[in-house]
Design goal:
Rossmann fold; Response regulatory domain-containing protein; five-stranded antiparallel sheet; alpha/beta; 236 residues
């Protein structure tokens, strides 16, 4: 979870657009916002595959911040995930956050998209008092001045295991200048095309990683596009 220690005294947004396919969850969130003097503006239509129309409707509402649920499919709100919506809003520099349950089956999908989502918060950790912080984290990223926990650094990524069980390749990796004793799963889709060709356990990748992240769910990977063979590291 992002700890916005660099931020202080950021005013909460006066209005927030809410995208949530579950009516009860949506109403609970609206009540919480009202209790803190924030106007909730829900989106209640159904969108199928039409993410363009949803993004246009959100931008037309004109709220200064957006909260979007991760899973929009169960109640047939949309056929795409909330992460796709947040990423598209970011392209329009619309501050938005993703709410998720962080279940194991969506962790890796979020890791693939995390670089383009400044704020992802689990429902259990969500604090309405921090909405101003969440919005400011987005604004700073849009202006190329991210908070330290979102700032990428060119980093070595050590390969500890390579798995391909009749599906996309997954790597068990260690990031020495983040937590040298902690292994995480890195999906192949986080890598540049073709990088895994000839890759072996013991090799290293080079990529841009936000090594200031406090939690593995906040890590992102960009430009993972170089391989350093194990023998080259030992020769350094």
């Amino acid at each position: 979870m992002l700890e916005a220690m660099e931020l202080a005294g950021v005013e909460p947004p006066p209005s927030v657009t809410i995208i949530d396919d579950d009516p009860e969850d949506r109403e609970d969130l609206m009540d919480l916002l009202r209790d803190h003097g924030i106007e909730p503006r829900p989106v209640n239509d159904r969108y199928g595959q039409d993410i363009d129309r949803l993004v246009a409707d959100i931008l037309a509402i004109g709220s200064s911040f957006v909260i979007c649920d991760y899973r929009l499919q169960p109640k047939n709100f949309a056929s795409f995930s909330g992460s796709k919506v947040v990423r598209r809003l970011g392209m329009s520099k619309q501050p938005a956050m993703l709410l998720t349950m962080y279940q194991s089956n969506n962790r890796l999908e979020l890791r693939q998209e995390r670089a383009d989502m400044p704020v992802v918060v689990s429902r259990r950790d969500f604090e309405v008092e921090r909405l101003g912080d969440y919005a400011e984290i987005c604004r700073r990223e849009f202006s190329d001045n991210p908070i330290d926990q979102r700032r990428p650094h060119r980093s070595l990524i050590a390969i500890r295991d390579i798995r391909n069980n009749h599906g996309p390749t997954e790597l068990d990796v260690v990031i020495p200048n983040w937590r040298p004793d902690e292994s995480i799963i890195l999906p192949e889709l986080c890598l540049a095309p073709g990088v895994t060709t000839g890759l072996e356990v013991g090799d290293y990748l080079l990529g841009d990683v936000n090594v200031g992240a406090e939690d593995e769910d906040d890590l992102f990977f960009r430009n993972v596009n170089e391989v350093i063979k194990a023998c080259e590291i030992s020769d350094l």
